[in-house]
Amino acid sequence: MYQEKIISPPSGYLTFVLSLLLLAGSIICFVNELFLTGGIILAVDLFLIFPGFLIINPNQSMVLTLFGKYIGTVKADGFFWVNPLTTKRRLSLKANNLNGQQLKVNDKLGNPIEIAAVVVWKVNETAKAVFSVENYMQYVNIQSEAAVRHLANIFPYDHSEGEETSITLKDGAEQVSEILEKELNERLSRAGIDVLEARISHLAYAPKIASAMLQRQQATAVIAARKLIVEGAVGMVEMALEKLSQKGIVELDEERKAAMVSNLLVVLCGDRHVQPVVNTGTLYN
């Protein structure tokens, strides 16, 4: 596997001045009808001097090879001159966004879901990006999709009934992002790619089970709300009986306590307005 070798070629300004002088010399030779000398000087300038000029913009690099051998990578921005016989390949060092397409996969529990991720990446080692893989852009796309599929297979979408999973795709966003970023860095290190950030951008149940899962979530929410209401109502009934007993307002036997508890629970737990009923008799008649 190729390791990146950073080189610093000489400045191109002095060579550019030399190129201008050779061009001027060739013109003088042509004016003085020294066509052979002028042609040689012009050929040297055009084919041996001018092709060696190299301009590197900020956050760009140039990978140089000479007759199939890797020479090095120029990462410093500026104007340089290199061997004109070298083959040059420009690579961007800027951060790139990969907005992954929505994938239909099964989570850990076998539920069909739709998932997509956004990956921020950049080229870190140019030699690996050029020589270790055929097309590093395509390599990033395919490996990112594979990592997202693997992530969906090892975690459930949500907590299942009677089971509390430590990490889920829905609730464990930070942990899932860290795991995805780590796996992508391992997969893309072969191509010299550094993953800066990876996050889930889309997560939903597949349409064929979305309505059933929505009903399940609604039922779970209703049960949780009812449970909270019942716990609060029981506490209020207990407090009411205790206050009545402490202050001696009324003496209640077990049957009357049961009736009072029943009435209070109906009032506190019911989801409709209660219609009061005036009892003109007794509880026993």
The N- to C-terminal Cα distance equals 96 Å
Tell me the fraction of residues in β-strands, as a range.
Answer: 15-25%
CATH secondary-structure class of the largest domain: Alpha Beta
The CATH homology group name of the largest domain: Band 7 domain
- Low-pLDDT residue intervals, each spanning 5 or more residues: none
Structural class: alpha+beta
Overall shape: it is rod-shaped
What do the pLDDT scores average to?
A: 82
**Number of helical segments with 4 or more residues:** 7
Short description, anyone?
The protein folds into 3 domains: 79 residues, no CATH class; 113 residues, Tetrahydropterin Synthase, Chain A (2-Layer Sandwich); 59 residues, no CATH class. Helices cover 46% and strands 21% of the residues. The protein is built from 7 helices and 9 strands.
Structure description:
With 285 residues, the chain is an alpha+beta fold. The protein has three domains: 12-90, no CATH class; 95-207, Tetrahydropterin Synthase, Chain A (2-Layer Sandwich), CATH 3.30.479; 211-269, no CATH class. The protein is 46% helix and 21% strand. It contains seven helices and nine strands, in the order ααββββββββαααβαα. It has helices at residues 13-31, 35-49, 126-131, 136-154, 173-188, 207-247, 254-269, and strands spanning 53-56, 60-66, 69-74, 78-81, 87-92, 96-99, 103-106, 112-123, 193-205. The strands form three sheets. Strands 6, 7, 8 and 9 form a four-stranded antiparallel beta sheet that branches. A hairpin with a 2-residue loop joins β2 and β3. α1 (13-31) runs antiparallel to α2 (35-49), α4 (136-154) packs across α5 (173-188) and α6 packs antiparallel against α7 (254-269). The protein is rod-shaped and about 130 Å long. It starts with 12 loop residues before the first helix and ends in a 16-residue tail after the last helix. 15% of the residues are buried. The model has no long low-confidence stretch (mean pLDDT 82).
